[in-house]
Amino acid sequence: MVPVTIAEPAVRSYILYSGILALKVLGMAALTARVRFRKKVFANEEDTKRSKGVVKYDDPDVERVRRAHLNDLENIPVFWVLGALYLTTGPSSELATWLFRVYTAGRVLHTIVYAVKPLPQPARGIAYGIPYLIKWYMGAQIISHFIGSL
């Protein structure tokens, strides 16, 4: 295992992009609320009182944002784990930074083309697929690096 320290540019890059992704996940709740208030559709009766909205569980716009949020919750924590483990393999700082940057850009783009300004396929598939492949690459590198130490 390669020592991982904050002095490493790849580690600082990982921290930066992990922070951006964490704020992005938090921002999805605000985006969901924005769509709910704009459409005046809520999941709970008490939320309808002030805005004179209705309880509705199947609004297509709200559900689209919720699915994008769920997609983040299914993918970004895996990036955090794989990214941290990937750093222990001693990757070049340039490659690691490039992977973290492209992953983050892809996840932000995925939200835009899925939940903010929906675009037809293959836009969402590309925005999802490239970060997905980055996770597979990092996972394969981790296994390849450590498999001989068993």
Automatic annotation (TrEMBL):
InterPro entries, A to Z: MAPEG-like_dom_sf (IPR023352), Membr-assoc_MAPEG (IPR001129), MGST1-like (IPR040162)
Annotated transmembrane regions: 14-33
Reactions listed under catalytic activity: RX + glutathione = an S-substituted glutathione + a halide anion + H(+)
Subcellular location: Endoplasmic reticulum membrane; Mitochondrion outer membrane
Keywords from the UniProt entry: Acetylation, Endoplasmic reticulum, Membrane, Mitochondrion, Mitochondrion outer membrane, Transferase, Transmembrane, Transmembrane helix
Membrane topology: Multi-pass membrane protein
Cross-referenced SUPFAM superfamilies: MAPEG domain-like
GO terms assigned for molecular function: glutathione transferase activity
GO CC annotation, single: endoplasmic reticulum membrane
EC number: 2.5.1.18
Subunit note: Homotrimer; The trimer binds only one molecule of glutathione.
Family in the record: Belongs to the MAPEG family.
Function in brief: Conjugation of reduced glutathione to a wide number of exogenous and endogenous hydrophobic electrophiles.
Protein name as annotated: Microsomal glutathione S-transferase 1
Species this protein is from: Euphydryas editha (Edith's checkerspot)
